[in-house]
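Example record used in the benchmark description.
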Amino acid sequence: MKRTTLSLLFLLFSGSIFAQQKPALTWKEVSKWNSIRSYTYALSPNGQWMSWAKGPTEGDLQMEIRKTSDTTSLVYPIGATASSASFSKDSKYAAFKVSVKDAEAKAALKTMKPVYDQLLVVALAGKDKVTFEKVKNFSFSKDSPDWLAIQFSPAENASKDKDAPKGTDLLLYQLQTKKSFNLGNVSEYAFNKAGNLLAYTIDANGQNGNGVFIRDMKTGVITALENDKAVYKNIRWNEEGNAFAVLKTVKDDKYKTELVTVLGFNKINGDLTAKTAYTGAGLKDFPKNMGISPNTNPYWSDDQGSLFFGISLLEKKDSKGADSTKKDKTPVSKADSLAKVKPGAKTDTLAKGKPAAKAPAKNEAEKPDMIIWNWQDKRLQSAQQVQESRDKNYSYLSVYRLADQKFSQLADSNMKAVDVAQKQLYAIGYDNSAYELMANLDGQSYTDVYLIDLKTGKKKLLMQKYYQAGRGYLSTSPNGKWAFYNQDGAFYSINLENGEKYNLTSKIKSSFVDELDDHNVSKPSTPAFGWSEDSKYILIRDNYDLWKISADGKSVTALSSDWKKKGLQVSRRFNIYPDDKATDFGKNQYYGVFSSIDKKSGIAILEAGKNSLKTLFLDDNYYDGFGKATDGNVFVYSRQNNEKSPEMFVSSATTLSSPKQITKNTPDQDKYAWSSGVKLISYVSTNGDTLQAALYLPANYVQGKSYPTITYIYERLTDGLNTYAMPAFPGGGFNKSMYTSNGYAVLMPDIKYKLNDPGMSAVACVVPAVKAAIATGIVDEKRVAIHGHSWGGYQTSFLITQTNIFKAAAAGAPLTNMISMYSLIYWNSGGTNQAIFEASQGRLTPGYWDNWEAFTRNSPIYHIKKVQTPLLLLHNDKDGAVDYTQGIEYYNGLRRLNKPVVMITYRGENHGIAKLPNRKDYAVRMMEYFDYMLKDKAAPEWWSKGVNRLDMEKHLENRAFEAAEN
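Model output (C-alpha cells):
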C-alpha cells in the first residue's frame, strides 16, 4: 500500500515537472500552428451537420464536416486556401472548393501560371463524393434540395480584354440522379428563392445568341425571354422569387460608356412572361446627358409596380470619335527609374546620364501634368484621386413607375445618399452639400434630411442641419411608415405619413449618451437594436438596460431590470432568423450579456411573448458566433477565454442547456507552455478616474516571482479580457500568446481621454496601471517594456518622453508631431487628418494655430530631449494612414541626440504589414529586441551594430537560413 502511494506521488510529481518543462512556443511553430479558421463555419439547414476549414498557419488545409449529434466526422483535403462549405436545403449534400496545394500555389505565383479550383460534392449519408475541375463558382438551388449549379472558369487561352465575352459553361447537376445538363456561354445565373426557376444570361463570341433565359427546374423547359446583340448582366430576383430585373447594355460609337436598358420580368410563365423595358434616354422626364448606369443593380418594388435602378452621366465622344478620357502615357522619369532599381542591379546607363525612357511625343511634351488644389474644394484633390473610380461610376438612385410610366430621379449630385424604406412607399434622402467642406475639415458631420414620396417623387425637408457625427442615419420601420433617430442625447420617432414626431426616451430616467465615448463628438448615442417585426416597437439601449418603446413613445417597457447596479449591459442582439426583417416578439430572441465590472459575458433569452430578459449563463468566457439552424431547433455558439481557443458548442434546447462541444481547435497547444491565467487590476489614474487593466500571466507562473512584462496599449482593452490570441504573425508584430508562452507577463490597461490632452491622458492612465501591476508582485519593475501600433504607437512614442518607467519601447507607425500630422493627408482615403484630429481619435481641437500649447504639449517630437528609453521604431514607406515622414522625423531627431533607436521600414508596405515574409521578419525582430532588453539575451547585430545597405541581402539570406535551421 505504501509503495503504491509513493509510486502515485512520484508519478504526480513527475507529471508536474513534465508540465513545467513544456517548451515555449517559437515562431517556427507558429508557421505549423493548427487551428480552425473562424470565418469558415457553416451549419446545415437541419442543424445536424457543421463544417469548418482547419490546418496550419502555412501549408495545406482540410475541410471537416461533423455531425452535431454524435462523433461522425468527414475530413477532406482542400489545398492552401480556406473556404466554407455550402449545404443543400435537405442537408443531404455538402459542397466546397478545393484549391491547389501550398507548394503548387507558390510555384505558380513565380511563373505567373494560372491555377484553378476544384469543387467537391459530398453525399453526407453514404460519403460518396464527386469532383468537378476548374470551377469558378457554384450554388445550390436555394429552397429546393434537387440541384447544384456549377460555373466553370474560362479557358486558359480566353481573351482577357474587358469587352471579350464572359460566358462559360454552366453545369446543372441533379443531386439525386447524378444527371448533368450543360448550358454553354453563361455569364451570370441565379436561382429564385424557391429554387424552381433559374434565370441566366448568355454572353457568347460575336454576341451570337446573347440574351436572358429562364429554366423551369422541374420540367427542364428553357425560355428565351429576350435575345439581342447586347450584354446582359446584374440579375436580381425579388424576395418572393416571382420576378427579377436585369441590365441590357449595348455599345454605341457616339458614347464613351454603354447604352443601358433596365429589363424587368414578372408574371413568369414561359413565353407569356411579362417584360418591362426602360431606357429613359430621350424621354421628356429623363435628365439630359444621363443614362441608365451600367454599374447599378436594378430591382423590383414589393408590389412589382416600380423598378429601381441608378443613372449616371452619359458622355459623348469627341467629334473624331476618340475617347477623351484615355490618359496620355507619361514617360518614366530618370528619378523614377532610379527609385525602382534593385540593390546590386547595374545602373551604368543611368549613371552616364542616358535617358531612362524615350522622349515624349510633341503633344505630350506640350501638355502639362498637374493638379490644381483650390481652397474651396469640398474634397481635397487627393481624396478626389483616391475616389475617382467611385465618382466616375457613381449611380444616382432612380425609379420608374409602370402604372403611369413616370420616371423620378431620387438622388442627385447634392443628395447622393438615398435610403428606400421597406414597402417602397417612402425614401429618406441626405443632402450634406452645404456642410461637406467643413465636415472634411473638422469632422463634424451635418446633413439636411428629406422625405421622398415614391408615389409622386416629391421631396419634403424633414430636418435641417441634422448632426450625424456618432449617430448615422434614420432607421425605417418594416411597414415603411415610421423612422427613428437620435438627436441631442435623446431618441425620437417620426410618422412619415403625417410628419408627427415623438420623444421616445423622455419618460426614462436614464442617459442615452454613450458614457465611454470620449471623442470630440456632441452627445454620442447609445446603441439601438431596431424595430419590431410589426413596426409597433423600437428597441433602444441606454448604457446598460434594453428598452421596448412604442413607436409613439407612450408605452415604455424595461426588458432588463436595472442592470446598471450589477454592472451588466445588453451588449448586442443575435439575429438568428435570416428571413426576419426585424425583431419578431412572437419568437424567442437572444441577446449578448456583458459585465463591465468583471468582464464576464453570456447569453440571455427574451422568450416569445415575454417582456423580461432571462440570463441563461454568465461566466469568465467570451461568447460569439451564436446562430440557429434555419430548419431545426439546433443552436450553436463559440466559447473562448485567454487560455482556451474558440470552440463551437451545440444545444437542441431553447435554454441552451446541456451544450456539447463539437470542435477541437488548436490541437497542438497542450505541447507548449501557455499563459497561466489573467488578473483584472483596478487602479486610479492621475486624473482621478477609476480604471482597469488586464494582466496576463506568463506560462508556468509561480506566485511570488516577478516577470519581465510587455505593456501593450491602444485605448480601452480590458473588454477583451477573455478573448484568445491565436498564435500568428500579425501585421503589427505583437502576439500576446507568443509572449506569455515565452515567459513574459503582458499588461493591457484602459485609457480614458481628456479633450486636448491625448498624450497626457495616456501618461495619466498607463503609468499608474504599470505601478499597480508592479504592486501585485507579478511584474518586475526593472524589466517593463511598452509597445503599441498606430494610435498605440503614438502613445508609446509620447510616453517615453514623459517617464523612464520602461526599460524598452517599440512603436509601430506612430504619430510623432501633432502639428505637422494635423495637416498631412490620410493617403488611404485621400482626406486630411484634420477631421480625424477634431472629431475622432486625435482629440485635439481646433487647429494648432488656436491651440498651440495643447498640440505641442502632446507631441512626442517637442519633448524628444527627455527620451532615455531605447526605441524600436517601425514605419513603412507606403503608410497611407500615418505619413512616413512622422517616423522619419522622430528617428532623425533621436539619432541627432544620440539616443538608441532603430527604425525598420518594409518597402511598399502600408500601415500594417501585409506580406507574410515581412510579418514574420518583424515579429522575430521585435521579440529579439525585447529578449535583449528585458531578458539579458545577446543583442541582435541589427540592433547593436546595424546593417550596411550593401550587406542587407546577405543579412536577410543568413536570417532565412537560421530560421530554417531552427
